[in-house]
Amino acid sequence: xxxxxxxxxxxxxxxxxxxxxxxxxxxxxxxxxxxxxxxxxxxxxxxxxxxxxxxxxxxxxxxxxxxxxxxxxxxxxxxxxxxxxxxxxxxxxxxxxxxxxxxxxxxxxxxxxxxxxxxxxxxxxxxxxxxxxxxxxxxxxxxxxxxxxxxxxxxxxxxxxxxxxx
Length: 166
Prior knowledge:
Elements: E1 5-10, H1 14-24, E2 33-36, H2 39-51, E3 55-61, H3 70-79, E4 87-92, H4 97-106, E5 109-114, H5 119-137, H6 150-160
Parallel strand pairs: 1-2, 1-3, 3-4, 4-5
Helix pairs in contact: 3-4
């Protein structure tokens, strides 16, 4: 793989952040996980990941954050060329109807999960979002077969007409 694809989790409550990271830990061998407690800190993490030639394939973001809220952060990330294609997930117990619509329409939101969540629900959503990301962004899908949706990846390989080493 030419560059690593990261998962970024943005959550200000330490116990909730730990729970999300724990629930996503099965992806970490293939997709390193970075964490941030504010949108401002998340921007620094995003910049650091891209400065090292890597990318963020999935952002999991809480709605209520100190300072800028998660919806505004996701909208901003969707407007940036680097993170436009990043899959975005809002995880919250407090987003209102208007905020959710804004995240969908302007933030490129691909999935919404209500707190409290079930670990399998979060894992399944992350698996599908990351599968879609690598199908769109990667030439060689084989390194992702054990971690992601292998049926979808196999179909993408068949559709492309072969496997690439690059």
